Amino acid sequence: MINRKSTRFQPDPMTIAQLDFATGKDFRPTLIGLVINESYTGCAIVLVADEAPKKDLKLKIKVGALSPLKAQIAWIKNLEENIYKVGIRLLE
């Protein structure tokens, strides 16, 4: 059993996360992932990408209808070729 620091919640069906890896102030997402669970400290998403994002990479994320937030890649699991399960830690 995994000890988690915060409780996980099931997202509303078809909730997406928009990811912006640029360092600028504006929010301009370049990847979209399906949210598979949420917590007060982050979320897990599944995304299709040519390559996996790097662990500890900082980004901006917009989950569902929420405003964009600063975040960081906490972990990555390769599910299949070009399909990744990614843990996102919110930084604010």
Radius of gyration: 12 Å
Question: What count of domains describes the coordinates?
Answer: 1
Kindly state the percentage of residues in helix: under 10%
Mean pLDDT: 90
Shape: globular
Walkthrough of the structure:
It is built from no helices and 6 strands. By secondary structure, the chain is an all-beta fold. A 6-stranded antiparallel beta barrel has the order 1-2-3-6-5-4. Strand 5 and strand 6 (83-90) form a beta hairpin. The radius of gyration is 12 Å and the shape is globular.
What features would you highlight for this structure?
mainly beta, six-stranded antiparallel barrel
Short description:
The chain is an all-beta fold and 92 residues long. Helices cover 0% and strands 50% of the residues.
Outline the secondary-structure elements:
Layout: E1 16-20, E2 31-38, E3 42-48, E4 58-63, E5 69-80, E6 83-90
Antiparallel strand pairs: 1-2, 1-4, 2-3, 3-6, 4-5, 5-6
